[in-house]
Amino acid sequence: MPAILAFEKISKRFGAVVVARALDLALAEGEALGIIGPNGAGKTTLFGIASGTVAPDAGRVVFAGIDITHLAPERRCRLGIGRSFQIPQPFNGMTVFENLVVAAAFGGGRRERDVYARCVELIEQCGLAAKANRPAGSLTLLDRKRLELARALATQPRVLLLDEVAGGLTEHECKALVDLIRDIRRGGISIIWIEHVVHALVALVDRLVVLHGGGFIGEGAPQAVIASPAVRDIYMGIPADA
């Protein structure tokens, strides 16, 4: 399948710290791709490069055949790149519904009155119907994460970038969120998911890559990548000969 999003020879460093060294990575249309790696490996930086909040030192980002390397974040959003953040960032004083309207109208570039029906659908899909009129700041962590997903979906993305959405959740809450992401994927959205809760990724993604030292040290079927000696040693802290 053709790539919907591609990093081509992407390089990025912060002082002496290299987080990407001529990286190549392509996301196929309809694919769910997982990224793991130690803290500080540069996973979230890659999302910043994709969404336009971080400029690469070299290389380019291609979305649906268009070079978007120098496009502003809002233009990328309206083209079809949506993202969530590790720490949910709703407008706490607004209701759940109002948060979605803002995302759909401004992030999606549509008139406010044209987005109401879609916002209602997303509130129901993400399990927030009973809390639609509550201030976002009053929600539990799980529901804030649900809202974070709903806000990203409100922009009508073709690619959804998920950053640590399972972090801080109980096992039961994590399963509920994985089920929601699985439902989102059925709608045809391509996904890149960064996550430290590895079993959540393995339950959903088609392919897993491991970022370390500015490059990928593993790539392939999730179970095979997790079982590889290099990943066990570098990412999980388990010696390769254990």
Write the layout of secondary structure elements.
Elements: E1 3-14, E2 17-28, E3 32-36, H1 43-51, E4 58-63, E5 66-67, H2 73-79, E6 81-83, H3 96-107, H4 116-125, H5 141-154, E7 159-163, H6 171-186, E8 190-194, H7 198-202, E9 207-212, E10 215-220, H8 222-227, H9 229-234
Parallel strand pairs: 3-8, 3-9, 6-7, 7-8
Antiparallel strand pairs: 1-2, 1-4, 4-5, 9-10
Helix pairs in contact: 3-4, 3-5, 4-5
Description:
This protein has 242 residues and is an alpha/beta fold. The strands form two sheets. A six-stranded mixed beta sheet has the order 6-7-8-3-9-10, sandwiched between helices. Strands 2-1-4-5 form a four-stranded antiparallel beta sheet, covered by helices on one side. The protein has helices spanning 43-51, 73-79, 96-107, 116-125, 141-154, 171-186, 198-202, 222-227, 229-234; strands spanning 3-14, 17-28, 32-36, 58-63, 66-67, 81-83, 159-163, 190-194, 207-212, 215-220. Helix content is 35%, strand content 26%. It contains nine helices and ten strands. The chain has a single domain (3-234), classed as 3-Layer(aba) Sandwich (Rossmann fold), CATH 3.40.50.300. A hairpin with a 2-residue loop joins strand 1 (3-14) and strand 2.
The number of distinct β-strands equals 10
What is the annotated CATH architecture? 3-Layer(aba) Sandwich
Quick check: average pLDDT? 92
Main sheet attributes: strand count, strand direction, barrel closure: 6 strands, mixed
Structural category = alpha/beta
Helix/strand order, N-terminal first: EEEHEEHEHHHEHEHEEHH
pLDDT under 50 segments (min length 5)? 238-242
Bin the helical content: 25-40%
What is the CATH T-level topology? Rossmann fold
Count of discrete structural domains = 1
**Strands ordered across the widest β-sheet:** 6-7-8-3-9-10
Distance between the termini: 38 Å
Q: Roughly how many Å is the radius of gyration?
A: 18 Å
Per CATH, the superfamily is P-loop containing nucleotide triphosphate hydrolases
Determine the strand fraction and express it as a percent band.
25-35%
How many helices? The count is 9
Overall, the morphology is globular
Write down the CATH class. Alpha Beta
